[in-house]
UniProtKB/TrEMBL annotation:
It comes from the Eukaryota. One of its GO terms (molecular function) is metal ion binding. It comes from Myotis brandtii. Substrate binds at residues 21, 101. Its cofactor is Mg(2+). SUPFAM superfamilies: HAD-like. This is Pyridoxal phosphate phosphatase PHOSPHO2. Belongs to the HAD-like hydrolase superfamily. PHOSPHO family. Mg(2+) binds at residues 10, 12, 181. Keywords: Hydrolase, Magnesium, Metal-binding.
Length: 243
């Protein structure tokens, strides 16, 4: 079989330097949502909330091309373009996936506009599509029974299933490197093994949570490497492929 390093990326605030779901609000009238819509979010039910946001945008006459223009104007995180180009040059050593709470339409638009589709072997995210009346609709990625994660997506379940499936195809990962920023990246990271690397973005929820856990001496098997630019991630990956 093949031996490779698996790179797992979050999308929002990791590949792109903002949150795609809040960025799209720029399309709304006066660039904001009505209070009652804004207040309708319930913790753990973000995808349902976004469904209502997309319905509102559609009813306000926001069309697909306008949403696409807005989405593809979102900036990449510093050093990310360099990192993705580095991974592309070394695809023989890396497999690369995205596990994201965004949606398939937004991620497709961004990867297409920036020509980075080929870097990623798979994208796991909430499926979205435009319906007959031109409104964007979004569904939960899957159902799961993990009580730590939002209802629509447990990133750990996705990661474990992917790694198992790859093993059946004869692809064995020597290491997993997990690059993310948010609270929903904690679940997959706590299941990483001794050889793996957790890479939280400096100053974001995931990094703060991990440092609190280490102060409380909660055991973590993987090593933790904090980053603020994709260029720092390149340096770390260069060390891993030289080993």
């Amino acid at each position: 079989g093949t031996m490779k390093i698996l790179l797992v990326f979050d999308f929002d605030n990791t590949i792109i330097d903002d949150n795609s779901d809040t960025w799209i609000v720029q399309c709304a009238p006066e660039k904001k949502l009505p209070n009652e819509l804004q207040d309708s979010y319930k913790k753990g039910f973000w995808t349902e909330f976004m469904g209502r946001v997309f319905k509102y945008l559609g009813e306000e006459g926001v069309r697909e091309d306008e949403m696409k223009r807005t989405m593809t104007s979102m900036p990449f995180t510093p050093g990310m373009v360099e990192l993705l180009n580095f991974i592309r040059k070394n695809k023989d050593k890396f497999d690369c996936i995205i596990i994201s709470d965004s949606n398939s339409v937004f991620i497709d638009w961004v990867l297409e506009a920036t020509n980075f589709h080929d870097v990623f072997d798979k994208v796991f995210t909430n499926p979205a599509a435009f319906d007959g009346s031109g409104h964007l609709t979004v569904e939960n990625y899957h159902a799961h029974s993990c009580n730590r994660c939002p209802k629509n997506l447990c990133k750990n379940v996705v990661l474990v299933e992917f790694v198992d499936k790859q093993l059946q195809q004869g692809v064995n990962y020597t290491q997993i490197v997990y690059i993310g920023d948010g609270g929903n990246d904690l679940c997959p990271i706590t299941f990483l093994k001794k050889n793996d690397v957790a890479m939280p973005r400096k100053g974001y929820t995931l990094q703060k949570t991990l440092s609190r856990m280490s102060q409380n001496l909660e055991p973590m098997e993987s090593c933790v490497v904090v980053w603020s630019s994709g260029v720092e991630i390149i340096s770390h990956l260069q060390v891993l492929i030289k080993e």
